[in-house]
Write a structure and sequence with these properties.
The complex is a heteropentamer of chains A (230), B (187), C (301), D (594) and E (378). Chain A has 230 residues and is of the alpha/beta class. Chain A is built from 9 helices and 7 strands, in the order H-E-E-H-H-E-H-E-E-H-E-H-E-H-H-H. In chain A, the strands form 3 sheets. In chain A, strands 5-6-7 form a 3-stranded parallel β-sheet, sandwiched between helices. In chain A, helix 5 links the parallel strand 5 and strand 6. Chain A is globular. Chain D is α/β, with parallel strands linked by helices. Chain D has 4 domains: 82 residues, Alpha-Beta Plaits; 108 residues, Orthogonal Bundle (Fumarate Reductase Iron-sulfur Protein, Chain B, domain 2), CATH 1.10.1060; 167 residues, 3-Layer(bba) Sandwich (FAD/NAD(P)-binding domain); 142 residues, 3-Layer(bba) Sandwich (FAD/NAD(P)-binding domain), CATH 3.50.50.60. Classes of the chains: A alpha/beta (230), B alpha+beta (187), C mainly alpha (301), D alpha/beta (594), E alpha+beta (378).
Chain lengths: 230, 187, 301, 594, 378
């Protein structure tokens, strides 16, 4: 692939600048006032992430963990085929609401990111952003074989294989598709883990931030956003 | 006497139609040269009732150095489908755009641009990313692109795997001296 | 009515009771809604857990001062509403800071939270928030119109702007309720009630499908917890006003619980049945049906 | 907006009073359906053929060695290990499983924190679902493989018994391709084949109709392909994975399908056997399959090879022991002539010990390969066996091969259950005799090729199993002989060996035949080796026990063939020859990689 | 017809650029709409797909014919069976294998069940897109009952991998008819409830009537098929026009409407569900209980399909689903193209219809077109 034809190769250096609306620009308000806008400043937080300490008192932390475990809000982001088995989970048959699980449409209010199956590179980029926007402590569950070792898309040019290289994963559920029951079992397992205080993926992410970013950038070639963007 | 033969006879005088293949009663494939293709498409659509463009796709014949575009047209009245092949030069693939005839053709052309590198001058949003994003390799659907190798090189595979061929394994286990690489070796 | 310091702890007690009542009642309402869908729904204490969870989140990202103040304003709206509206008629403890012009203040507070929210959500910089806010303001304004007319109507009817007095006027028999003495005003007011309770068909503001998720898009952790608290207090506070104005108020916690529940249930009853209106559709709806009834109510008085 | 539209939606509340659809216990209440495709299970029937691995489009299956497996013939010792980071539960592996050992359970829940944990070897690793009895199994009427062998045209028994024409007609090209298509290319057979021929590869070449590649593959390990394509004992077919649910691949006949389609004159060109002398010579004793095979491979390595053969024609047992309806002479000649055409010198009618001494061979050659075979019929060891009407099976076959009349008469008893016995019986049938075969054990215990047994029965031979000859008595006529035999009961062996026949004294039979053909085995004849040499060589039961590369204690002497192995078939002899050739080459300073 | 989009000056402050998706509850699967809005009105819509692109057509080129059979169903996640059938049909046509009659009936049963399940999911989707969550709860649950049937019949809930080239993979389980009938009755009862709740709901009518009208002349220009086309008044249904499997032996009506708006499309689909139940009942009655369900196959491990090309299509819930396959006589396919109806509906048509609608209606509009992003990008 070395002597690649330039005519259809897209040059990563020049062809992936920031999107136009992401660059600093000026906007004229209806009243004629000119406003300078730097979207990266406005939309993203440039502050690097921090490791979050536990509560000083163990009993308080345990109580918090209990509450966290019983109020898991899932981000409504179905990344792959697994999304289709998440619907039964939230509907009468399995009624995950019983377990304090809710569906949140915005990452800011979600604690649990379920990567439901394969991740194309394009989705991975969004999944990373969604994850970073979620408030810590946050949890990631890899649903389906594809998140573990590529699954049936192991040789696809557009899907990643090892999801744990990109985000810290708390739990894996195998299957293709995993039944809603397994997802439920996974969530219950995750609850156990949270209650024991072992679900510290958010901190792991911060601690190994460079490594994760390097992996992410290795795969996402049009990295047109700041590294810190939550 | 089928619709297809009728039709192709009718157009045969003005167009260089070749390689007619009547696959089944309601499906016929044929080939026209590149410079006549769009004109014929228009005529088929406007005069012959082939109003439905089912899809437009491309076949890569790497060993012959050509791309073959396939326009699949359907006539709702006769319920007959025509597959029109157009050969393109693989190294310099360019084709006239038909986005003005069918709206969805623009999407197909975008896909072909991305997946094969075929150019359709004038087609809207042609060079925008379609399915891929940040793609820095040769177009992936071209035959010379090895997706497994690429996946392994970029996405890695999990460690801890390793397989043995039953035949080789039995050879090592059961009759090592009969193998060509016997343990003691010669000399 | 004179102010006494003891009213402050009394009022806080009222707020506390209402908060807990609201937590559990909204959960029960959710369970009822879930039942229609064919499932069991959340546990009744789920709201508490969610609240604790949100307080316990470690990340708090702010988008500016207004972003921070938004939920505070919002909660202030809810609390203010409660504090200035007599909760239990005839009870000194739960009289709160009711005074002669409290009806006007209450109307103001109903709007206050929304405005505060608008500022905060606007600051968050998310286009969904902005869209949600503009929808919300438009819709709430339209929905409040019939209510304002109805309030105008009954203040004419009872010749007072003091809620306590309005409640007092309705005591005695069930037929003294405004519901029966001035049904047109009640109908007009109910338009406003259903329209502002953020339930279908008038919940396009918060709709996850039409645009996720409206004003609170960027809100999380403690901010969200504040808003959640408001989400249980504010509707109840509003319900209390309606109860006081139109349904004879409550003379004890039992009557309070039943009446609030029943009133709240009206929105649920309608909500689970319907898809939601678009903003301009709901505005049109209020103007077309709510407004004439309100005007009729005034004319009737 | 009609009133109906306003009211009708409230109908939803009716459902509020119905029982919710929710399952109380979401995880336990709904086990997988009986057919659910859950996690993999593997039974003990698995032989590690790896077909599951080759059909898996996800590369989710690895074949890995498993500790503590009992070593069984036709078992690779590998077991499938599944990577559930890859699997998609399509169950193609179950559908294709040749032994039907692979199943899916209806267990489906596996949740862990460790992404590297999703590996397990089905059936041997302790998994919670190993005892599961439900789950996906292949339906009996659903096949992804072709289980029935393509029938080959052959002479019917009525026809075949009338002469010595070849019975098996061989596959037509289409048939051969279809039969080759059945192969799953697992390679289990390669280990079982004494010559370790690359069976899957040459079967693939049949499928691709690429006979030249096929011939090259055959000659890598076996210069008697034409012969083996007809009469090989095809041990490979006994372990063929296709045999577990249907018929094994006709490996032997596919080999024949290759050689039948390549004319002898093109062999040299195709095989590219370019012989250049390296100046050293090897003597080979016996021009049977072992000797000629060694000669071929030694010649390819450049050695001067001289073969000393006692008989007038080469081929040994193949020539004199196998009747021509199984192996026509011209086919044997095709193989032997090609070997000779490379420059192998064969000295006919030269019996070592009589015409030339063993010592002189050792002196003249750099190494000697001995493959004299077994040509001495074993005695029956019963009274009266020296009766003139008791013939040896070998003698009968020998005579027939040489065109002589063995003089068997019209009613013949054959004693024995090996291939020689079957051949003798079938030859006798062809000579018009009525044949009874007496065998000590059960029919399924017969060492003869099952096809042979089947065909001999079809041709009208009577097989009497569990019949032990007790005595041979002269009959009334001199041209006849009487045999006394008793019925036997099979008694389980205490030491775990195969069941023994025990004579039942009370059930004795007596029958008179024109002749009795004894074919219960043969022994070797190695008297020509001087005794001081013999002391250096290890023997067991009058057979050589060769060391590595068929070398004996006498360093220059390599042995092979029936006299040096227990299997006593052509293909083993061929392999011995090949192996010895490599050993000799190695011994003489070359590399063993030849 | 392609019309250039109006040039929008974003910096003028009059317009707002708004992204919906890829994470958006109103869209099945992942897709992003890049909307330019003025107030609540959309002035420009660009679709972005590829979030689910796995490169199926490439993967299929490097798998053998039997190995392709498990992967094709993943192309359209909510409705995998049509892929299985079409793949099987296209391979059968090129190899000349004919699947036995019993298999054809079971396939039809399978496809119609799938159609019903897919429609149920869609029905919930259209409810949810307009805020009627209750209907969503009901239909997804009832879809689950159908998935139970699938699990029983095929061994899996979602990816059945049941229709294999040459036939089907197993017989119907014991007692399947009763259980299937039971589910059909339940679904039918539910449908009548949904009609009362959703289709006779003035709010729903207000939202959907007049939304996203497809003019009849657009149908061919945009390659619109399926219910979207039938709602515009065209009586075209491949099950009737080019019968495959056993559809020529089944009785059913082709449902059409004329208004061609979101409501009409929904109504057509709703009626088709009833037709589906009708067909399913016929299938259950008439599926042969005996006989082979798989044609004799070659050894699939090295299955070479003769060189050729063909296009096989079927009427799925969204319209014309087709497989175009070119083979060159080797063990691998030369080219497969999967023609999913969503391809045109979700991109060209959506971009056209979205212009001029309210932002709040985009999700509903999208659902009313019934699109599945995974089949667009494959």
């Amino acid at each position: 692939m070395k002597d690649m034809d330039k005519s259809f190769k897209k040059d990563t250096e020049t062809e992936f600048p920031l999107r136009e609306e992401m660059r600093p620009h000026q906007v004229t308000a209806p009243d004629g006032q000119v406003i300078d806008i730097d979207p990266l400043q406005d939309y993203f937080c440039q502050e690097p992430p921090k490791v979050h300490a536990k509560s000083y008192f163990k009993i308080v932390e345990d109580f918090y963990n209990w509450a966290r475990a019983h109020s898991l809000w899932i981000l409504g982001f179905g990344t792959g085929c697994g999304a289709i088995e998440m619907r039964p989970l939230m509907t009468p048959r399995f009624d995950a609401y019983r377990y304090g699980i809710q569906w949140r449409p915005t990452p800011r209010q979600a604690n649990l990111l379920v990567i439901s199956g394969y991740l194309s590179v394009k989705t991975l980029k969004r999944a990373i952003r969604a994850y970073e926007q979620m408030p810590a402590p946050k949890y990631v569950v890899g649903l389906g074989s594809c998140t573990i070792n590529g699954g049936m898309y192991w040789d696809s040019y557009n899907t990643i294989n090892k999801f744990d290289e990109f985000l810290p994963v708390d739990l894996y559920i195998t299957g293709c598709m995993p039944r809603p029951e397994v997802l439920m079992a996974g969530v219950l397992e995750l609850k156990k883990k949270i209650k024991e205080g072992r679900a510290d993926g958010a901190n792991r992410y911060v601690e190994n931030f460079e490594w994760y970013k390097a992996n992410q950038k290795r795969v996402i070639k049009n990295w047109n956003m700041p590294d810190y963007n939550w | 006497m089928s619709t297809a033969t009728d039709l192709l006879e009718r157009f045969g005088t003005n167009y260089r139609i070749s390689e007619v293949n009547e696959q089944k009663a309601d499906l016929t494939f044929f080939k026209v040269p590149k410079d006549q293709a769009v004109r014929l498409l228009r005529e088929l659509r406007d005069d012959a009732g082939y109003t439905h463009l089912a899809f437009l796709t491309n076949i890569d014949y790497i060993e012959r150095g050509i791309f073959t575009l396939n326009y699949m047209l359907h006539n709702y009245d006769t319920r007959h489908t025509l597959g029109m092949h157009v050969d393109l030069d693989r190294d310099n693939a360019e084709m006239e755009s038909i986005h003005n005839m069918w709206a969805q053709a623009a999407t197909y052309q975008r896909e072909l641009r991305e997946m094969y590198g075929i150019r359709f001058p004038g087609s809207p949003r042609l060079d925008d990313d379609f399915c891929l994003e940040g793609w820095d390799q040769i177009p992936p659907m071209r035959k010379e692109f090895d997706t497994a190798a690429f996946s392994l090189a970029r996405f890695y595979s999990r460690d801890g795997r390793g397989t043995e061929d039953p035949r080789e394994h039995m050879k090592q286990q059961l009759y090592p001296t009969h193998t060509d690489d016997a343990p003691e070796g010669g000399n | 009515m004179t102010f006494e310091w003891i009213q402050i702890p009394y009022a806080l007690l009222t707020v506390f009771i209402i908060l807990n009542y609201g937590m559990i009642m909204t959960a029960i309402m959710q369970k009822i809604g879930a039942r229609v869908g064919g499932r069991y729904g959340i546990p009744v204490w789920q709201n508490y857990i969610d609240l604790v969870k949100n307080w316990a989140l470690r990340t708090k990202i702010t988008h500016g001062v207004m972003f921070y103040l938004g939920p505070v304003f919002r909660l202030t709206g809810g609390l203010g509403l409660i504090l200035f509206v007599p909760t239990i008629y005839g009870s000194v403890m739960h009289q709160n800071f009711s005074y002669s012009g409290d009806l006007i203040l209450a109307l103001y507070f109903i709007f206050f939270g929304t405005l505060g929210m608008a500022l905060g959500a606007g600051e968050s910089g998310h286009p969904h928030s902005a869209i949600g806010v503009s929808r919300g303001l438009a819709q709430v304004t339209a929905a409040e119109l019939p209510l304002a007319l109805a309030v105008f109507s009954i203040s004419l009817q009872y010749q007072t702007l003091n809620i306590t007095e309005i409640v007092a006027a309705q005591q005695g028999s069930i037929f003294n309720w405004t519901l029966f003495t001035n049904p047109l005003a009640v109908i007009a007011a109910m338009f406003g009630f259903v329209g502002t309770m953020m339930r279908s068909p008038f919940d396009v503001v918060l709709a996850p499908q039409e645009i996720p998720i409206g004003p609170p898009t960027e809100y999380h952790s403690a901010y969200l917890a504040l808003m959640q608290t408001n989400r249980v207090i504010f509707p109840i506070a509003k319900t209390i006003i309606y109860m006081n104005l139109f349904f004879g108020g409550a003379t004890g916690w039992g009557a309070f619980a039943v009446k609030v529940f029943a009133l709240y249930f009206v929105t649920v009853f309608i909500g689970v049945v319907h898809p939601r209106f678009r903003v301009e559709q709901s505005i049109r709806f209020f103007l077309k049906w709510g407004l004439p009834v309100g005007i009729l109510a005034i004319m009737a008085v | 907006m009609s009133l109906k539209d306003l009211i009708s939606p409230f109908y939803v509340w009716q459902r509020a009073f119905e029982k919710p659809y929710t399952q109380k216990r979401p995880i336990e209440d709904r086990p997988g359906a009986p057919r659910y495709r859950g996690f993999h299970m593997n039974s003990e029937d698995c032989i590690g053929c790896g077909t599951c691995e080759s059909i898996c489009q996800n590369r989710a299956i690895d074949m890995v060695p498993v500790e503590g497996l009992e070593q069984r013939p036709g078992d690779s010792g590998l077991r499938p290990r599944f990577d559930y980071g890859r699997c998609c539960w399509c169950a193609l592996c179950v559908d294709i499983c040749t032994t039907r050992s692979l199943h899916l359970s209806n267990h489906y829940a596996w949740v862990t924190e460790d992404p590297d944990a999703f590996h397990f070897t089905a059936g041997t690793d302790p998994m919670p679902w190993n005892e599961n009895s439900l789950g996906y199994r292949r339906d009996d009427d659903y096949h992804l493989l072709v289980h029935d062998r393509i029938e080959m045209e052959m002479l019917g028994p009525d026809e075949s018994v009338r002469g010595f024409d070849e019975v098996m007609k061989g596959y037509t090209e289409e048939q051969a391709v279809l039969e080759a298509d059945r192969c799953v290319e697992c390679g289990i057979c390669v280990a079982t084949c004494p010559a370790h021929m690359s069976v899957p590869d040459y079967i693939r070449s049949v499928r691709k109709r690429d006979y030249e590649t096929g011939l090259r593959l055959l000659y890598e390990t076996n210069p008697f392909s034409s012969t083996c394509g007809r009469i090989c004992t095809h041990r490979c077919e006994t372990v063929c994975v296709m045999g577990y649910q249907g018929d094994p691949i006709a490996i032997r006949f596919l080999k024949r399908a290759i050689v039948d389609r390549v004319p002898a004159e093109r062999y040299r060109e195709i095989l590219g056997d370019d012989v250049s002398d390296n100046g050293r010579t090897v003597g080979v004793i016996g021009a049977g399959p072992g000797g000629m095979s060694a000669a071929y491979y030694l010649r390819r390595l450049g050695y001067g090879v001289t073969v000393y053969e006692a008989q007038a024609r080469a081929g040994g047992m193949l020539r004199y022991g196998v009747p021509s309806y199984r192996l026509p002479d011209d086919q044997l000649d095709k193989d032997i002539d090609y070997i000779r055409s490379l420059g192998v010198e064969v000295r006919f009618n030269t019996l070592v010990g009589r015409d030339v001494t063993f010592q002189s061979l050792l002196d003249t050659h750099d190494a000697v390969f001995l493959a004299v075979g077994l040509n001495q019929p074993s005695a029956l060891r019963i009274n009266g066996e020296e009766h003139p009407r008791v013939l040896s099976g070998l003698k009968v076959l020998d005579d027939v091969a040489n065109g002589l009349d063995p003089g068997i008469g019209r009613k013949v008893a054959v004693i024995g259950g090996g291939n020689v016995a079957m051949d003798a019986a079938r030859v006798s049938r062809r000579m018009g005799a009525e044949v009874t075969v007496l065998y000590r054990r059960r029919i399924e215990d017969m060492p003869a090729d099952p096809d042979e047994i089947h065909e001999s029965q079809a041709e009208g031979c009577t097989l009497v199993a569990q019949a032990i000859p007790v005595e041979i008595k002269p009959a009334a006529s001199e041209a006849q002989v009487t045999i006394v035999w008793g019925e036997a009961e099979m008694v389980a062996d205490d030491k775990g060996g195969r069941p023994r026949p025990v004579l039942q004294e009370d059930r004795m039979h007596e029958e008179t035949y024109d002749c009795v053909i004894a074919a219960i085995g043969q022994g070797g004849q190695i008297d020509f080796i001087p005794s001081d040499y013999r002391e250096q060589i290890e023997f067991k039961w009058n057979k050589f026990v060769p060391g590595d590369y068929q070398q004996t204690g006498l360093a220059k002497l390599f042995v092979g063939g029936d006299i040096a192995n227990s299997r006593a078939d052509a293909i083993s002899a061929i392999e011995d020859g090949h192996h010895a050739a490599r050993g000799i080459h190695r011994f003489l300073g070359g590399s063993a990689d030849a | 017809m392609f019309e250039p989009t109006p040039q929008v000056d974003l910096s003028s402050g009059k317009y707002l650029k708004l992204w919906q998706g890829p994470q958006h509850p109103g869209i099945t699967g992942n897709m992003a709409l890049e909307l330019t809005t003025m107030g609540d009105e959309i002035v420009d819509c660009k679709t972005h797909v590829g979030y689910l692109h796995r490169g199926f057509e490439k993967l299929m080129e490097r798998r053998t014919f039997i190995q392709n059979f498990p992967i094709v169903c993943r192309i359209a996640v909510p409705e995998p069976t049509f892929n299985e059938y079409l793949y099987a049909a296209v391979v059968e046509e090129l190899t000349g294998i004919e699947s036995p009659e019993r298999a054809e009936w079971i396939r039809t049963l399978n496809l119609e069940l799938m159609r019903l399940a897919s429609y149920l999911m869609w029905l919930g989707g259209i409810g949810a897109a307009f805020g009627q969550g209750t209907v969503y709860q009901w239909t997804v649950t009832h879809r689950d009952y159908i998935l139970d049937l699938f699990e029983e019949m095929t061994g899996a809930r979602v990816y059945h991998m049941y229709i294999v080239p040459g036939g089907v993979r197993g017989r119907l389980p014991e007692g399947f008819e009763e259980r299937c009938n039971d589910v059909l009755n339940r679904v039918e009862k539910l449908l009548f409830d949904v009609e009362k709740v959703l289709f006779n709901n003035f709010v729903f009518k207000k939202r959907t009537k007049g939304l996203g009208v497809i003019a009849p002349e657009m149908v061919d220009q945009y390659g619109i098929t399926g219910p979207n086309q039938r709602a515009a008044g065209f009586v075209r249904d491949l099950r009737r026009d080019a019968p495959y499997l056993v559809y020529d032996q089944l009785e059913f009506d082709v449902i059409t409407a004329t208004e061609s708006d979101a409501y009409a499309r929904s109504w057509v689909r709703y009626q088709e569900m009833h037709q589906g139940i009708r067909m399913l009942r016929q299938c259950l009655e008439r599926t042969p209980r005996e006989g082979p369900f798989q044609a004799r196959m070659p050894n699939v491990l090295h299955w070479e399909v003769p060189a050729g090309e063909t296009y096989v299509k079927a009427e799925c819930t969204r319209g014309e689903y087709g497989y175009y396959m070119v083979t060159d006589g080797s063990e691998y396919v030369r080219r497969v193209h999967v023609r999913g109806p969503s391809y045109t509906h979700a991109i060209a048509l959506m971009e056209k219809l979205a212009v001029g609608t309210n932002i709040a209606d985009t999700a509903g509009l999208m659902v009313s077109l019934h699109t599945y992003p995974p089949e667009i990008e494959r």
